Amino acid sequence: MFIPNTRYYSGLYVWTREADLLYREYGRFRQAASQSGLPVTELSLARGAGRLLVVGASDGLPLADEGVATGGDDSFALVGGVLYNKSDIERELSSTRCAPQRSDPELVLAAYEQWGAHCLDRLYGDYALVAWHPGKALLCGVSPGGARWLYFSAEGGLFRFATHPALLLGDAQVRGDREYFARLLQGYYTGDRTPYEGVRRLRPGYAVAVEERGCREFRWWKVPEPGSLRYHTRQDYEQHLRELLKESTRCRIVGHRHVCISLSGGIDSGSVAACMAELTRSEGVEASALTFSTPDIPLSDEFPCARETATRLGIPHEPVTLSKEPMPVEELVHLAADMPFPTEHIFLAHPHVALARAVAQRGGTLLLNGGGGEVFEADFTYLAHLLQERRIFQFGREVVHWRLQGFRLNRMAQDVFRRLQRESASDALSSMSKLKPWLRHVPTEPPADLSLPPMVRGTERYLAQQPLWAEMMHPAFYWSSGIVTGAPYMDRRVLEFAFAMPLELRVHLDADELHKPLPRSAFPEISSDVCRRADRVNLEQYASSAWIGCGGDTDLVAMVRNLSPMFDEVVDRSALIEEVVKLRQMSEMFKVAEAMGAVLWVHGLGQQGLVLT
Q: Model-level pTM?
């Protein structure tokens, strides 16, 4: 359940004048930590007029960028992650509040003392933080990119927080959140829900302020208005993007001697590799590119395309050859249980474990990736959703807007029909929202931000309402090997640029062109021909064949039959088993990937003694 070599934090904030309640909750806090299997060392204990604040840390080995700072007045700041603009913060803070060259937690503590919750607006980095100062609220905040995470529960006069959701479970009987699992299995965004009832996820770009009057969750990071950034020429946007991505990459390689990148040959990882190649030469950092290679399954083999990209950039390149031997189901179950969330990506566990080992064997301590490049992608498929929702007036307004921008009607229609072709052949429009036949609980999807243009609402929801790739996958497979991961595209400054640029820079005039036109023109050294071939490579082909090859679908049927009774309110087991068997015969197991990820995760928790009721 917990990732080795990682320090976890948990805390309790109680505001009451009943002494018995204070000490009872303190005892429960210690008990919960003990039940989690992680001994807790008390870092801070502040008592006041009816207030108790406790912060604990597991005895796991901490990553170098994590820590806690305390003040003489019982104030404290906890930072999981890293700040990238420390020098800017030091300049803004007065000399009496912060001496130069302080740690990240010390800077956060001083910033919170001076600016309160508005300090979040001034911080750039990948972090989850908690800060408290006498006379101020307890503040919990998460950076927009979702590279670090925080969970919390609030009930009455009690507020608990932790960097792993299981640390908030103090009772022997753990109830699963039915709405969470129904959203997950339907393919909806899960929002602030977690698999555990009563435990919430603090979403990227959000914060919670806790006072005696209660707690208040708010969004501190505001998505820029699309089109609010205007330059004279397209070349200005290209230069700005290139400078931002290069600076974002530079911030992440600081302090590392050997940096690797997971290179697929596509534009996302290719553009990050281009920045890395420039920086490593000037910064004196050793760099190398690693790529999954499946020579026995050509449709999944990323190596040929990535090799061409690496050669163009002058980066040493090596394959991470994936064995034809399938991963045993029990090992997959064990890896699934290490995740804080169930995820369909667990079926890519084998490749990522192999990649983590390859980085460690080469002496690397940082693995960069192109995750988040999707924020520069858009097309006209959202028009189909407007039709499905019968928002005819807005549909017509969008079509007129894009015609005035020079886009032809057949250009828009091609995107819409391509989307419909991926849906059911019959009644395609309604099938987009059709409830899966094996679901019993009807979920509700978190609402979109209606203040944004329809084209980018899905991108904003991807950032705010969905546990991101870094949140679900990377820690379990890389941190345990001592590898830090970095996604330069998820830097706050890059995200703000992606939303603020004009919408017309997101789409090509020609439907046959590749997606993400601005990154492609900003990085001409990444060949479009190579990217086209890389886009056709599908690593899921390897994962699916490995899953079927090890008889995983047979084991899955048995796991579904033995699931917690809670799932009878969420899924029809017989119908789900029938679907699994049918898709196995069609070799399309990934069509129920969400269900399989959830089943493996819950089954793995059961093996570790934690059962959802």
A: 0.91
